[in-house]
Structures are given as structure tokens and as C-alpha cells.
Amino acid sequence: MLARHRDDIDARTHVNMTLANEHENLGEYQGAFGHLVQEKFADRNRVHQSIQHGEELIKILTRAFLELQPTPASDASGEPIFVIGMPPTGATMAGRILSSHLDVHGTM
Questions:
Q1: Global pTM?
Q2: From the centroid of its chain, how far is CA 27?
Q3: How far apart are CA 23 and CA 49, in angstroms?
Q4: Per-residue model confidence (pLDDT) at position 82
């Protein structure tokens, strides 16, 4: 399939990712890594960005984000805050990060 889709980067990406997953499931980690490398090189050739471009984009997004943030008000009401979400949205990680604070208690 890789040879058949030589000129279709999207198809090659899907095939390489599928083959990498299958190799990993079989415990053939070298084969999986080989397909991941092929996929990433194909993607890298498609995306023409520099480190400077990425740094500038992060600066722009950071400035925009900080401008949109309201000044936080103190809230010492003691009311519970629930962190909910469908997997894999990061709700579990957010809950764990918040519960690492001494004044926060995490449940399940």
C-alpha cells in the first residue's frame, strides 16, 4: 500500500500509522518505530515551518491570551468546584493538577 500511494502524503501517513500500531501490538517495536519515522519525515516535508515561526506564533498566542484574561476575583466561598469531561479531554489530568494544591481535595 505504501508503494501504491507513493505520491499521496495523507494516505502514506495513515498507512504508516496503522502499520506502526500493528507492529506495536505485536511487540515489534523496531518495526513500529520505523513506520513512525517514515510518517514524521513525510509530514515534516509537507509542513514548511521554522523554529522562529513557531516561537513567533507562541508569542502572538500568549499576548492574545493574556489580553483576554479578566482579573481574577478572590472567591473564598468554600463551594465545591467540579472538573468533569469526557475521555480523553484532559479532565482527569486537570483534576489531578488542581488536587496537588494543599487547599484542594480530589475525589475519584
A1: 0.42
A2: 24
A3: 30
A4: 76
